[in-house]
Design brief:
This protein is of the alpha+beta class. It has three domains: 83 residues, no CATH class; 137 residues, Butyryl-CoA Dehydrogenase, subunit A, domain 2 (Beta Barrel); 143 residues, Butyryl-CoA Dehydrogenase, subunit A, domain 3 (Up-down Bundle). Strands 2-3-7-6 form a four-stranded antiparallel sheet, with no helix packed on it. It has a three-stranded mixed sheet with strand order 1-4-5, covered by helices on one side. α1 runs parallel beside α4, α9 runs antiparallel to α10 and α10 packs antiparallel against α11. The radius of gyration is 22 Å and the shape is globular. The two termini are 35 Å apart. About 2% of the residues have low confidence. The structure holds flavin-adenine dinucleotide (FAD). The site of flavin-adenine dinucleotide (FAD) has 23 residues, from β1, β3 and α14.
């Protein structure tokens, strides 16, 4: 039976997470307004906090509800400030891809690095099978030669290396796509620029160019033996990482939505507007009713996300659920931040408060890790038992 019971240790970890998150929040406005600067890896006050209070408690390794705890910790940390927290993340998306598709030797060699993940190109976004970056094996030197361009790479500046999708043979479609690890500093690998964005400005989103970039043969994720196989190092191998990264993306957005709700509740209370959860419809202020509706959207998204994580913790399939929670959260966080602005009026868009920034930051939840439309396609295919060709 589904069970979200938290241990005392879990609860202590979550409480500490919130304390640390509040420290991050004090930097939120500064790095929103100074996008060109990047926050340090560990913010000075956070360092002080960790020194005085010790590291954040973790739930035990034997805890089978670990994905649920990870989601709750994400909600707690991103509640402080989404953008700052995103910037302070230890590893990147590429680390999840390495875990899913790398050999044990590759995981041991590169697991300690911060790895970005580069699939998207100027002509390839929602449909990753259109990757046109090429990898050609130079039989004489035994090196892969990479050519192509990647855009919107999260943690792209500070990453030590990238897990990159490239095609060995365009005519082979998805089967021709493999993932490769390319370390920063490799000749022919250039970080061409840092993107300027509507929101999540503290995060370093970058564009990469690969020009005759030579990497060792052993940098093919999954090793040489993955080449004849369709299911490793490439599409399936890396796509399955989305089953865990999508609920985490949902949880991150929910942290932001919860912060917006908390701020709005405080403002309503200080204006003397009571929120009565037992009153029926039409019996209290429109602001209070609207607020309760926003909280209901939040709860639906949160429980959908935790259910998906619980399935992962139980080792059960969660492919459809990961799309459901991602699609739901993408819409929820937008509805909640916009709804909070509607309730608070001018205060909601004032730069004196963080709500307007959170509304801008929220937009990304429905874009990266697959847009809402793409999640709905995956859900529809799953429910109707349609193939990719039947429904595209
Ligand atoms: C801040 C940020 C960080 C990112 N980080 C990364 C990263 O680390 N690594 C990486 O590889 N990528 C990253 N991305 C890229 C992101 O994954 C893509 O932007 C996303 O997949 C959408 O691709 P696209 O922008 O090319 O849009 P397109 O694919 O061109 O889509 C445009 C619109 O059409 C819709 N659409 C497309 N196909 C269909 C369809 N079949 N049916 C219905 N609607 C459809 C989409 O939903 C979207 O609304 C990042 C993007 C941003 C903005």
């Amino acid at each position: 039976m589904i069970d979200f019971t938290l241990t005392e240790n879990d609860q202590a970890a979550l409480a500490r997470t919130r304390e640390a998150a509040l420290i991050a929040r004090t930097y939120a406005r500064y790095y929103d307004e100074n996008e060109h600067e990047m926050p340090p890896e560990v913010l000075p006050e956070a360092e002080e906090f960790i020194k005085n209070a010790g590291p954040l408690p973790q739930s035990g390794p034997e805890d089978t509800s670990r994905p649920v705890m990870l989601a709750l910790q994400s909600i707690g940390t991103y509640w402080g400030d989404y953008s700052i927290r995103l910037r302070r993340e230890g590893g990147g998306l590429g680390n999840a891809a390495l875990s899913a598709a790398g050999t044990p030797e590759q995981q041991a060699k590169w697991g300690g690095l911060c790895l970005s993940m580069a699939i998207t190109e100027p002509g390839c976004g929602s449909d990753p099978s259109r990757v046109s970056t090429t990898a050609v094996l130079d039989e004489e030197t035994g090196e892969w030669v990479i050519n192509g361009e990647k855009i919107f790479v999260t943690t792209g500046i500070r990453a030590d290396a990238v897990v990159l999708w490239a095609t060995l043979d365009k005519s082979a479609g998805r089967a021709g796509i493999k993932s490769f690890l390319v370390e920063k500093g490799t000749p022919g690998f250039d970080v061409s620029h840092k993107e300027k964005k509507l929101g999540i400005r503290a995060d370093d989103t970058a564009a990469y160019v690969f020009s005759d970039c030579r990497i060792p043969r052993s940098n093919l994720l999954g090793g040489d033996e993955s080449i004849p196989k369709k299911n490793s190092g490439g599409f399936r191998g890396v796509m399955k990482t989305f089953n865990m990264t999508r609920p985490m993306t949902a949880a991150m957005g929910l942290g932001l939505a919860e912060a917006a709700l908390d701020f709005t509740r405080e403002q309503l209370e200080s204006a003397g507007i009571e929120i009565d959860y037992k009153a029926g419809p039409g019996t209290q202020t429109a602001a209070a009713e609207k607020f309760i509706r926003l909280e209901a959207i939040y709860d639906a998204s949160k429980w959908t996300t935790l259910q998906c994580c619980w399935l992962a913790g139980e080792g059960k399939p969660n492919n459809m659920e990961s799309s459901v929670c991602k699609a739901h959260a993408g819409g929820s966080v937008r509805a909640i931040t916009q709804g909070c602005i509607e309730i608070l009026g001018a205060m909601g868009i004032s730069r004196e408060h963080l709500l307007e920034k959170w509304a801008r930051d929220s937009r990304i939840t429905d874009i990266y890790e697959g847009t809402g439309e793409i999640q709905r396609l995956i859900i529809a295919r799953g429910l109707l038992e349609y193939t990719r060709q039947d429904l595209k």
